[in-house]
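hi!! sorry for the late reply, been swamped w classes. u asked for the two structures so here they r. pasted raw, havent cleaned anything up. first the sequence of the first protein and right below it the tokens
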Amino acid sequence: MTRSLFGTDGVRGRANASPMTAEIAMRIGMAAGQVFNRGGHRHRAVVGKDTRLSGYMIEQALTAGFLSVGMDVLLLGPLPTPAVGFLTRSMRADVGVMVSASHNPYEDNGIKLFGPDGFKLSDAVELQIERLVASPSKITLAAPPAIGRAKRLDDAEGRYIEAVKSSARRRLDLSGLKIVVDCANGAAYKVAPTVLWELGAEVVSVGVSPDGLNINANCGSTHPGVLQEQVLAHNADLGIALDGDADRLAMVCEKGKLIDGDQLMGTIAERWRRDGRLTGGGVVATVMSNLGLERFIDGHGLRLVRTQVGDRYVLERMRAEGFNLGGEQSGHIIMTDHATTGDGLMAALQALSALIKSHKRASEAFRAFEPVPQLLKNVRVGDATAALNAAAVVAAIAAAEKELGKGGRVLVRKSGTEPLIRVMAEGDDSELVRHVVDRIIEAIPRQAA
């Protein structure tokens, strides 16, 4: 059986349409509850969510499913995805669930599951759950006296706030820094400003008025324009933008210029190398990370290991080979010494620590390397697989690779969520990069697009 319910980051879709209905959410709760109902102890699940209107419905449906198979539920309320991973492990829960569609608009929602170790589930475990969702008759319901109980965990925010603050070595003092933080009207709208203020910063908060419909709406890490404007308007030292579930971030320097995940990884890696904290001999990134980052890492006697796109693949490689730093250009920064998944707030504190130790302004401290010109274009097609296998496309890619040589890269791949082919090239000659991308695009057949 191949997976059809779970994607690369849990279950996701439009709210109140399959698979994001109350019925399917309840079945997922029942199935996950049965899979993680191991041993004779009283079992528990922790359930967090972001601020989407549909979160109420999905949260309650999941809760009903867990209770029906005899699992107790601790409801966390709105909290970042990494907080769920942390609390699952910290509270010795058997399973954790985050109700969120990350950086997507409010119309969408999703379900992310964590095992008792606080890490997202393997493909094999997700397949077990998927089989039970498809065959609910195989789920064993609890006898009346064994039905689970649900309650709110009142100190969930406080537990996570202290964990984030303690992730910074010694006590990080942000006194004297004015920081604008954009919480995307999402899961971190309370905890992010609190953490920064308690560490001493002067905080300007935006995106902290969720109404169920405005999560990620022209704000947050995927829409950094507001943050850039606010940093300049308030004459701030820097800005931090999180996405809807706060597992990724973008930063903005005092000049209002964007700092992406590649620059942040480079900055943190160099600081950790100096401090003797970097393990694995380098950093794990995806095929999308800039060639400039690879050259920077190589220049310090380290190695950059690339994976396919997706933070789960980065994390798998990190755990397999002993790396403690990895991430994506989009701002997923994974630090396994501190968190079991990408944590935008913890990554921001590590970046701030590096900034303070550098005695530089953000515009200098976070310019770890000069990015190599990179161009990405998307092409809508009918059959992406067939288009990629077309002889003309294969020939165009080979020609592009030959032209760029060792001074550049070409990456042509199909989207995992849309009928698109993504064409990316990078190299020292920006005009040549543009030329090879356009030539590959011209070769792609558009039939039935």
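now the second protein. again sequence first, tokens right under
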Amino acid sequence: MSLNIIILAAGQGTRMKSSLPKVLHELSGRALLQHVIETVEQLNPANIYIVIGYGAEQIKNYFKNYNIHWIIQKDLVGTADAVKQVLPYLKNSSKNPDDKVLILYGDGPLISCNTLQKLISQTKSNQLGLITTEINNPYGFGRIMRDNKNNIINIIEEKDADNAQKKITEINSGIYLTSIKNLQNWLPKIKPNNSQKEFYLTDIVPMADAITSITVENSNEVLGVNDLEQLYQLECAHQAELAKKFRLSGVTVSSNVRFEGEVEIGAGSKIGANSIIKNSKIGQNVEIKPNSIIEDSIIHDECTVGPFARLRPGTVLDKKVKIGNFTEIKKSHIGEGSKVPHLSYVGDAILGKHVNFGCGSITCNYDGINKYQTVIADKVFIGSNSNLIAPVKIGEGAFIGAGSTITKDAPAHKLTLSRAKQTTVENWKSPTRDKKD
């Protein structure tokens, strides 16, 4: 049997107080919906259907490079109606009515692949599978109703719950696993008999002959986002989990470090306070000093970066490179043992081994229309406050005198410098200091 995925993402999210569709708000540098898509892709489903409504074109454009079947819910009248819009597509794409359907929400970004695999493995073909969790403050969530044998018999939404039901702390995640056949039988029977006058997907629960549930201990996995405060709280919890994971793998992570996207860090490395690491690979025994930003970069073993350094996309640092404070590197490859110690900019450049790139020096890579490359060979010394006007090559072992502006290739093992003649005007008088009051 094949697996089909339905992700519900049609709501506007009015409590976000934003014109941006709720599922496009970001957590850890990725859209909420992106987290869900990339998790379910690991399950190798036959199809991924995403139901959208508000901001449909904006959402489709954001995910234009993903293999998604988009379904439009014209009238936002409930989650059951949203799933119902997918039924014709499921029927056409699947020849087996017993094929599985996994239903999730686009604003629940932290559900793990392991939890979903557990749900799939433990739910038999004739059952409805669902995920629950326990939270101390269940306000706003649907409560799990169980009988005296601990079997799930229903789910009561917050607005429809009485005082006794509101005290229940086991909540519904909104994640379900069932078959195409079951959905075809159940969904037409659902009526809007509730305070919201909506078609609730939770109404399939009492229709199921058998229910399997799994309970996740980390409730953050199944919590959704309804406003910016909840997004912030979930972001904090997620960042804490990521930091914990790295610490347990041998990485020292200081306070207020933020990780975004795919990040790898080798054992023995240290990440200083207030740093941001995004879509980067960091080797072993690397030190990222405080207040540094690393984005789409590769840092090999035993490098030192920062404090207050920025590595922009396309940066590669070979072993034992030092990037100092207030230095920016962009789309450049820095060779082993080289140093760009402080107050410098290196863009679109290749630096060889054991290069010393002096304080205040820059590669001038952009002429207003095109960008050009600077190539610096091994063991070059770039004096402080030098400007290398690309395209230009600096030969092996060359010295560039401080304060130079280099517009032509500099030969190997020679001193190259360019300076204007220093002149002192003997009879000059200050127009301000000599002015009488």
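hope this helps!! also noticed smth abt the second:
Residues 228-248 form the longest helix (21 residues).
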